[in-house]
Amino acid sequence: MGQRLSGGRSCLDVPGRFLPQPPPPPPPVRRKLALLFAMLCIWLYMFLYSCAGSCTAAPGLLLLGSGSRATHAQPALVTAPNETSPRMPFRAPPANSLAAGKDKTVGAGSQEEQSPEAPDSPSPISSFFSGAGSKQLPQAIIIGVKKGGTRALLEFLRVHPDVRAVGAEPHFFDRSYHKGLAWYR
Ligand SMILES: Nc1ncnc2c1ncn2[C@@H]1O[C@H](COP(=O)(O)OS(=O)(=O)O)[C@@H](OP(=O)(O)O)[C@H]1O
User: Which of 53, 115, 138, 156 gets the most CB atoms within 10 Å of its CB?
Assistant: First the structure.
């Protein structure tokens, strides 16, 4: 049967050299370059996407010169007791309570009264949200005992791109309450 098929030539039987040849497979180097380019595009897209989200949400972070992880540098600033930095001049206490501020706290400011007392120093939250119109009260507050794992909870929450957390524990309710909400913002 094979002989019959091969022996008889039909009108569709065209020699292989006249048929259009499929394009040769790309060499491995070109394939690798294409893969690299695709990965670069994906990486760039993800980077720009995450940067756009964090930068538009917290303009203050831009002033700090970094992205959403700028808060990690703040504990170093605040742990020095006599730090005279104009940004974070308050004393950093040992941790036992944390306040986590979320961005886009549009209605937060109207929920609590603002203290008539003028702030004697920039509050940690104000320093963190240094953008115009961003002096807002936090939407969430972490309260915990010493060694209760509050720092770990804060760091876990901070990973979320929509969460803006203070870098240091402000200790507003137990140590700086007398300074008023104007300091706290
Ligand atoms: N998920 C989980 N499970 C068990 N233990 C945990 C967890 N997260 C934090 N930790 C431990 O909590 C201790 C730190 O707590 P704090 O962040 O509250 O410390 S601090 O008071 O603010 O300094 C600290 O304990 P020590 O290492 O003994 O200091 C952490 O190891």
Answer: 138
